[in-house]
Write a structure and sequence with these properties.
- By secondary structure, the chain is an alpha/beta fold.
- Helices cover 16% and strands 30% of the residues.
- It has helices at 20-55, 83-89; strands spanning 68-70, 79-80, 95-98, 102-104, 107-109, 120-123, 129-132, 143-146, 152-154, 158-161, 170-179, 184-186, 189-191, 193-204, 211-214, 217-219, 230-233, 246-249, 259-261, 271-272.
- Strands 2-1-3-6-9-12-15-18-20 form a 9-stranded parallel β-sheet.
- It is elongated.
- 30% of the residues are buried.
């Protein structure tokens, strides 16, 4: 027989089958490896972001954050050019220290203005600091504190001076309004005000966290006759309708009346001052 007889016709020849199963398995393994690497990388990125967010200027547990310093000196770390700028980045419990001898700022401090209220402002250790108004309006206090929960002035070495120019003086140096439990002003000096150093209008502390004015010094400027060191007022249609949970302790009044009410029934429960 010839060789051609052993060869099947061209139309009946079949190709060997390709083993598809190993190829599919390899593709699945490759996809699994790629997915694992991608998930791992994503977890690493998320972890780094969380670490950076949690560690940003946040000290280890039990260690206080460094004070935020306010000074016009250039090149100092952790410093700000104004008190307002420091308040905008402050976190609850922070201390803001004033390093310069003179500041001119007029501030409204309340939560809705994105200014942290539960902070302490003080002169840097060993410094004598004078805080004057920036605004020329006699009716705008240097500080207006509204719903300033936990706000504190540690006033050792700090003087609030209401002199606008050679002739004009602010009526009030600090105004306190609305519920502000834990607000405290201690050891500061007030001078050059024509009506009062601190105006308290419809303000309230809490039973366990009263508003406190402690050991303040009031100096009457030349030619001025203020009504009182602290002036209380309230309007029945504003919350709280009465001043409440407020303490005035100690202090040097320089012949001034310690405190005075300018309307009837302005004060409610637990309001006390030196008589």
């Amino acid at each position: 027989p010839s060789a051609k007889a052993d060869t099947p016709p061209r139309s009946t020849r079949t190709l060997p089958k390709v083993a598809a199963q190993p190829l599919v398995a390899n593709l699945r393994r490759a996809k699994l490896v790629v997915t694992t690497i991608a998930v791992g990388a994503a977890l690493i990125v998320v972890g780094l972001l969380l670490y950076l967010l949690m560690s940003r200027e946040t000290p280890p547990r039990g260690i206080a954050r460094k004070p935020l310093e306010v000074t016009k000196e250039l090149g100092r770390p952790n410093t700000y050019r104004s008190i307002e700028a420091a308040l905008r980045v402050a976190e609850p419990g922070d201390v803001i220290q004033l390093l310069d001898a003179d500041y001119r700022e007029t501030l409204l401090v309340e939560p809705r203005h994105q200014l942290t209220t539960s902070v302490t402002i003080e002169a840097a250790p060993g410094r004598e600091v004078v805080w004057r108004p920036a605004a020329k309006d006699e009716n705008r206090p240097i500080l207006t504190l509204q719903k300033a929960r936990g706000f504190k002035i540690n006033g050792k070495g700090l003087t609030f001076d209401g002199a606008i120019d050679e002739k004009r003086r602010l009526k009030d140096l600090i105004a306190i309004n609305f519920d502000s439990p834990g607000l405290a002003i201690e050891d500061a000096t007030f001078t050059n005000f024509s009506r009062c150093a601190v105006s308290i209008v419809n303000a309230g502390g809490a039973k366990d966290r009263p508003i406190r004015l402690l050991n303040l010094k009031y100096v009457v400027g030349a030619g001025l006759s203020p009504d009182a060191a602290v002036l209380f007022d309230a309007k029945a249609d504003i919350e709280p309708p009465q001043n409440q949970y407020i303490e005035l302790l100690g202090g040097s009044y320089g012949g001034l009346v310690a405190a005075k009410e300018v309307s009837n029934a302005a004060n409610g429960v637990q309001v006390s001052w030196p008589k």
